[in-house]
Amino acid sequence: MPGVFISFEGPEGAGKSTQTKLLQLALERAGYAVTLTREPGGTPLGDAVRNVVLLNLDLEVTPLAEFLLYSASRAQLVRDVITPALQAQHVVICDRYADSSLAYQGYGRGLNLAFLREVTWEATGGLRPHVTVLLDLEPSVGLSRASFRGAKDRLELADLAFHQRVRNGFLELASLEPERFLVVDAMLAEQVIHEQILSAVAGSLLGI
Ligand code: TYD
């Protein structure tokens, strides 16, 4: 049996990194081999893209260039990390994946969704998550949570209307594919969220 691929999506400050780590620990305790990775990043190229597109705020980056950079990072991550881990029957947990491009660069920045889907298909070889956990959160709450983490990145600096479009985009993507998405209210307590995720993942994918 090939491995299981789980992505986490949602706005800044929704608690994705906490929840991905909690899921990793729980699955490892249950005996699964887990590969935890993130986008942009997860490979040397991906980390370079992260620095360029998110943190180098002096650089002008058009929405199309931004999307192509994220796609470059994704192509490398799929080939070098995700595919080999799935072949080794790992559970792969990815903190953001292609739905982030559709939500941020598509719904948020206004790029054509059909074009984004086509490029994403090429970049990923059509690899899609078995389950996508969407941690849904009101953008103003998320942004204020994220601001406690220090310097703002390029996306955190975008205005609230942008983040509202991103949130609505994620919710629309979830409604288009209800069998893939698990939508969780990110305002719930950390442990409650974790248990919801664990029971959905364990029940539908791992049979535990
Ligand atoms: P990151 O520092 O990982 O923080 P978090 O995931 O907790 O928000 O920031 C990643 C940022 O990159 C986030 O603002 C969303 C953005 N992003 C895109 O706009 N498009 C993409 O395809 C990806 C993967 C990320």
Structure, described:
This protein has 208 residues and is α/β, with parallel strands linked by helices. The chain has 8 helices and 5 strands, in the order βαβααβααβααβα. It has a 5-stranded parallel sheet, with helices on both faces. Helix 4 runs antiparallel to helix 5 (113-124) and helix 4 packs across helix 7. It has a single domain (4-206), classed as P-loop containing nucleotide triphosphate hydrolases (Rossmann fold). It is 56% helix and 13% strand. The radius of gyration is 16 Å and the shape is globular. Bound molecules: thymidine-5'-diphosphate. Thymidine-5'-diphosphate binds at residues 12, 16, 39-40, 54, 70, 96, 100-101, 104-105, 153, 155.
Question: Notable features of this structure?
Answer:
Rossmann fold; 13% strand; alpha/beta; binds thymidine-5'-diphosphate; 5 strands
In short:
It contains eight helices and five strands. It is of the alpha/beta class and 208 residues long. α1 (16-29) crosses α8.
Would you spell out the secondary-structure blueprint of this structure?
Blueprint: E1 4-9, H1 16-29, E2 34-38, H2 44-55, H3 63-87, E3 91-95, H4 98-108, H5 113-124, E4 131-136, H6 139-147, H7 160-176, E5 181-185, H8 190-206
Parallel strand pairs: 1-3, 1-4, 2-3, 4-5
The structure holds thymidine-5'-diphosphate.
The site of thymidine-5'-diphosphate (TYD) has 13 residues, from helix 4.
